[in-house]
Design a protein that fits this description.
With 576 residues, the protein is of the alpha+beta class. The protein folds into four domains: 33 residues; 185 residues, Cytochrome Bc1 Complex, Chain A, domain 1; 196 residues, Metalloenzyme, LuxS/M16 peptidase-like (Cytochrome Bc1 Complex, Chain A, domain 1, 2-Layer Sandwich), CATH 3.30.830; 84 residues, no CATH class. It contains 18 helices and 17 strands. α3 packs across α6, α3 crosses α9 and α11 packs antiparallel against α12. The longest helix has 27 residues.
Length: 576
């Protein structure tokens, strides 16, 4: 009996141990290892109708009856890469004033009110590689929306006051471009990769903005804005047959034209290691960027590069520098690939000044490591799952789907290019990642840029190599010096002054003035609104025997000319 009890106890111990070991094994595994997830559903694409009008305009039309709205998007074959080097900013100003300036029959301010009355929006702009015009309206206002879109694309007025406002906004941006450390770093790193004067990196200066005239805007628009240079998409609550007829009607009188495009800018990059620095004394952290030229999206290695970048940036740099070392709030990497030219590969971090060089060394180590050894199975699976599980969000709106297809058509890519990328991602192996890392990354030829305060660095940057200190001083705007006064101009000025006194009641009247108040009606014009306000400002108050002093002041600067009548009070001056 005792032996039987002992045997039963032994069996229970085995069962208990088995249970505990099984639970421990389960506890060590994540939910993904315990549960079996079904295969992701196939993504259902909406039907996209493609039409080419007689004038060469290409249409992408998608019915979507979920909401009673219709959206239109025009993609135009124009960009800042085509603007003259001495007029950088021309493309941006042209795109802005097309909207703010309106048309001869719809001035900009009137257009604002017209759109507000029908709860519609119209936006235009020109970027580096393309231009756009977007319209969003309720479906019952689609005729009005199409008329406005066609009018803006074909007949922009380019009024001088709106051009002046756009140029003023550009000058303001120039004046403030060195305020933010991140903006400085991104801008200057781009210049290191492409070259400061290259169309993919250059930026406006006061002199290039001042050189732009209304005639330049008119000529730029006339050269590139033609129907055969436009892809127009529409999605929303309509029938394809009906919207096609409406689009044909509003653009029927716009003929196609031959466009003489300048050659696309060439990228001639030379790999070299360099340490570059920009001093910014008013910060307590450093912004670090390192990298070199990137690639193109049509490179067969692109899917593997996406996964390589995911592992380098998030599985390694982010975990090492932020999670484990706590050196930065954010660190990142990006293997930039463009459609028609090489992008930029870069890794970045922001860290306190006292850990600048230490952080750079950690980043360099990780870039080198991914070119020398295979990634782990876990890293590969996690990176691929991250991409594939989020793939569906490329299709969560008709806007994304149509805009992407327009972009593919614009650059001559197959319309199912994103599906090809997905299939490529699914096939990526550890060997692929090591191969593309060795081929496309050059750890010993990285260009490193640091923006920060060198007085607080943990070590001088020179321990990493010779330092090239970059000058980001903003060139001063051009000023005009008023000509020296001649005896004749002084005589004429005195005559005008005395005439002003006489028509105002004579010198005796001026001596009797006790107070002067300036009353002004002001209008502030902004891109999307107009503000009017009244200002009452005491300019002069005479006490006892004070005298009134009147002068004719000429305001003459590079940004405005005019005359103003000034006055001041003084106890000692006499009016002669």
């Amino acid at each position: 009996m005792g032996k039987l009890k002992g045997f039963v106890s032994f069996i229970w111990v085995l069962i208990l141990l088995t249970f505990l070991l099984t639970n421990e094994t389960i506890a060590q595994k994540g939910p993904k290892d315990v549960f079996v997830f079904p295969k992701l559903n196939e993504i259902k694409m909406p039907k996209v109708e493609r039409v080419t009008l007689k004038n060469g305009m290409k249409l992408f039309l998608v019915e979507d009856h979920q909401y009673p709205t219709i959206d239109l998007k025009a993609l135009i074959g124009v960009g800042s890469i085509y603007e003259p080097a001495d007029k950088v900013g021309l493309a941006s100003i042209t795109g802005t004033v097309m909207r703010t300036g309106g048309t001869p029959t719809r001035p900009g301010d009137q257009l604002d009110e017209e759109l507000e009355n029908i709860a519609a929006t119209v936006e235009t702009g020109i970027g580096r590689n393309s231009g756009y015009a977007d319209v969003s309206v309720l479906k019952e206002d689609i005729d009005k929306g199409l008329e406005i879109l066609a009018d803006i694309l074909m007949n922009p007025a380019f009024p001088q006051d709106k051009i002046d406002l756009a140029k003023l906004q550009q000058r303001t941006s120039i004046a403030r471009r060195n305020d933010e450390i991140m903006e400085i770093a991104n801008r200057e790193f781009n210049c290191l990769i492409y070259g400061k004067t290259h169309p993919y990196a250059r930026y406006p200066e006061y002199v290039t903005i001042d050189a732009i005239t209304r005639a330049d805007l008119v000529a730029f628009h006339k050269k590139y804005f033609h129907p055969n240079n436009i892809i127009l998409a529409a999605w929303g609550d309509f029938k394809v047959k009906n919207i096609k007829k409406k689009i044909e009607r509003v653009f029927a009188k716009w003929p196609k034209a031959k466009i003489d495009f300048p050659p696309k800018p060439k990228v001639d990059y030379q790999y070299n290691y360099s340490i570059n620095f920009i001093q910014k004394s008013d910060v307590n952290q450093s912004h670090i960027l390192m990298g070199h030229i990137g690639g193109r999206k049509d490179d067969p290695d692109y899917p593997a590069l996406i996964i390589m970048n995911q592992i380098l940036s998030y599985d390694r740099m982010f975990k090492l520098i932020r999670t484990h070392r706590g050196l930065t709030y954010a660190t990142w990497g990006y293997f930039g690939a463009e459609y028609d030219h090489p992008g930029v590969f870069s890794c970045g971090a922001q860290t306190k000044s006292q850990t600048t060089v230490y952080t750079i060394r950690l980043m360099l180590r990780e870039v080198k490591r991914i070119t020398e050894e295979e990634v782990t199975d876990e890293e590969l699976v996690r990176a691929k799952d991250t991409y594939l599980n989020s793939f569906v969000f490329n299709f969560d709106s008709k806007s994304k789907i149509v805009s992407r297809m327009m972009t593919y058509a614009y650059y001559g890519y197959p319309l199912n290019f994103i599906d090809r990328i997905k299939k490529g991602i699914e096939k990526v192996t550890k060997a692929d990642i090591l191969r593309v890392a060795k081929k496309h990354l050059h750890p010993d030829k990285l260009q490193i840029l640091v923006v920060g305060n060198k007085e607080d660095f943990d070590e001088p940057l020179s321990v990493l190599g010779p330092v090239n200190e970059l000058d980001i001083t903003i060139p001063e705007p051009k000023t005009e010096t008023a000509p020296e006064a001649s005896p004749e101009s002084l005589r004429r000025g005195r005559e005008l002054l005395m005439q002003t006194v006489e028509v105002s009641g004579g010198l005796k009247t001026f001596k009797a003035i006790q107070n002067v108040v300036v009353k002004t009606n002001n209008t502030l014009l902004l891109p999307r609104m107009k503000c009017s306000f009244l200002v009452l400002r005491p300019l002069f108050s005479q006490i006892n025997s004070g005298r009134f002093f009147l002068c004719l002041l000429r305001n003459d600067t590079s940004y405005g000319r005019g005359f103003c009548l000034g006055s001041r009070s003084t106890r000692d001056s006499k009016f002669n």
